[in-house]
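Last lecture ended with a question: if I hand you only a sequence, what can you say about the shape of the protein? Today we answer it with a concrete record. The protein is Fatty acyl-CoA reductase. Below, first the input exactly as provided, then the predicted structure, then a couple of comments.
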Amino acid sequence: MELSNIEPFLEDKTIFITGATGFLAKILVEKILRVKPNVKKLFLLVRASDTKSARKRFNDEVMQTELFSVLREKIGANNLNSLVEEKVFPVAGDISFEDFGIENSEMKNEMFKEIDIIINAAATTRFDERYDIAMNINALGALNVLKFAKRCENVKIIVHVSTAYVCGEGKGVIPEKSFILGETLNKNSKLDIDVERKVIEDKLKELEAQSLTTKEVTMAMRDLGIQRANLHGWPNTYSFTKAMGEMLLGHLKENLQLVIIRPTIITSTYKEPFPGWIEGVKTVDSFILAYGKGIMNFCFGDPNSNIDAIPGDMVVNSILAAIRAHIGNQYSSSQEFIYHISSSGRNPLKSSDIRLFMFHYFTKNPWINKDGNIIKVGMPTLFSSMDSFRKYISTYYWPWLKILELANLLSWRRFDKTYKDLERKIDMAIRLSELYKPYLLFHGSFDDANTERLRMEIKERNMDDVFNFDPSCIKWEDYFMKTHLPGAVKHIF
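The predicted structure:
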């Protein structure tokens, strides 16, 4: 995809991207280099001790991935290396710190003078992350991005990548609206971010006094995050801390142009740079992985619930489209723009659909384990309530586990591996179901009126082929059977 006939809206622009080694940022960097090599500079924030380490990590974890094979083939390996050397500048730093802890003052001053566009793609996406870590990255990290932007002389826009599920679980159409600082989802509590920080501080002191192991502290801080999220109406620590990040940005942005991109469940690439590239186990893929490997043949979720999925390259296209629409100041900087990058409103995908896709795919293409055994799968059982799911576990699995436990003790641990494997399967099934319940029992859809207007504007400029993020063009059966499931098997199994 070339941009030769399209206005060069990124020409001579300097872009700063956080979370540069993450799944989404990698697709974004590849796309920019492939279609806009006349961009001036890309500053990429990479967690590393110094510039040399940042460059090495970028080369190892980003440039060496298969994702860049299309660009490498298109322009040649030497030309790609030259392009990266000329345009790409990995910056050693951490979003958790003010000014990202950048120690290279010369580079930092250069960034303050040159940056035109900031894209905050840094996040910890683990749903039950430690509360202190999630707070530092997802909430306070967003604030650090804003503070840094205010020191940049020429910054024109901040694009903050959030999640549509900051709106929580629910039914009906969920609007593209911003949060007011202190707003909660349950309406019965008031959220004070300073209080939340104090809760974290006090809990860490309490745990330190108990001389616990690192694992015990981690589990306690994970539990705390879920408890605080639930208290204020959010289903998990991830969506809760991302909501706080949005609140801080909206409240303190002043005259800066702020755009918030809220994708739903991000899946493998639809077309660019090639179909099916994915990295890391995402929401839906946890069940696909467990099912395909024969770990469990049942899952939790209402057959009629919406699994709102959107391919990663479409999310990246929406980011670039939003920059194109906003950078010319057609929109007032006093407004805050939110875009739901979703599929449930225009092209819904049901739990029952994915269940069928998984069954048909792994029946035709069974996984072969490390011992060379073919994993045979059956139609997965789907439970539409936690009660029915727990009843099934307690009826069919707990008794067998108890028998195995006793037999294992009486036989001097002869059945140790079998017992531990079954225990692991049960624990995984319960944990995944609890963690993903809001996504698997989702009967609503996300309003995308703002997003549709953005799509229309891009179409009017004849850029919709280059920046396609229209979910209505996806044929879900083709996408899962020919793109996503083969991609998941290749890249994450």
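Comments.
1. The chain has 17 helices and 13 strands.
2. Residues 304 and 448 are 21 Å apart (CA to CA).
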